[in-house]
Amino acid sequence: MRQSAIDFRSKRLTLEGILSTPSEAGPYLPAIAVCHPHPMLGGDMNSPIVTAVCRAASDEGFATLRFNFRGVGESEGEFSNGKDEHNDVKSALNVLSRWPGIDRKRIGVIGYSAGASILLDGIRHIGRASAIALIAPTLAALRNRRFSKDKRPRLIIAGSEDRVAPSLQIQNILDECRGPVRFHELVAADHSMRGHESEIAHVVADFLVQNL
């Protein structure tokens, strides 16, 4: 996997990211953007789940872009707790769609915890994404009419011991969704998903291969 530090613009702000491509990259790669958890809980683009997903996707031939939301790490601005971060996601997807050698028709987006909530709250802004994976999304964020009616392939991963995003209640919400939705429960996992990084990365990579 080859990695490059990049900067890109989100409105008037400059954000930092890491773009990776497979060691043996062919032309017109599929690609993903990965959104990190809440910075108040230590989340950034180097969070273990984020990096594990990127490694697994790269092993399957995907380009990946992990980035810091506004106000996180060296990214400019202030984190707005989901109010404006959808602009950052949209900008990251635009970067991938314009990057040489990337197939703009095969771009996915992944979010964990707060990153998943940001994707759901701003789902109307991520039209460039052809597939969506959500890791430990909150119940409030999932109760989104746009998401339930979305026809793109979607993956939701939840922990059986997650009190923030209870897997049983998530399944009940997903029963009302249209289109292709895949659900994966992590046995004995809480909201931190600590110790389950490898399983998460494998499930996400398998979903991406099947849908992009």
Describe what this molecule looks like in 3D:
The chain has 212 residues and is of the alpha/beta class. It has helices at 48-59, 85-98, 114-121, 139-142, 145-149, 167-174, 197-211; strands at residues 2-10, 13-21, 29-35, 63-67, 102-112, 131-135, 154-159, 181-186. Helix 1 (48-59) crosses helix 7. The mean pLDDT is 96.
Fold blueprint:
Layout (H helix, E strand, L loop, with lengths): L1 E9 L2 E9 L7 E7 L12 H12 L3 E5 L17 H14 L3 E11 L1 H8 L9 E5 L3 H4 L2 H5 L4 E6 L7 H8 L6 E6 L10 H15 L1
Parallel strand pairs: 3-4, 3-5, 5-6, 6-7, 7-8
Antiparallel strand pairs: 1-2, 2-4
Main sheet characteristics: 8 strands, mixed
Task: Summarize the amount of helix as a percent range.
Answer: 25-40%
Number of distinct beta strands? 8
Distance between the termini: 19 Å
List the strand order in the largest sheet: 1-2-4-3-5-6-7-8
What is the residue-averaged pLDDT? 96
Rg result: 16 Å
**Low-confidence segments:** none
Tell me what portion of residues adopts beta-strand conformation: 25-35%
Gross geometry: globular
Going by helix content, strand content and strand pairing, the class is alpha/beta
Secondary-structure element order, as H and E? EEEHEHEHEHHEHEH
Tally of helical runs: 7
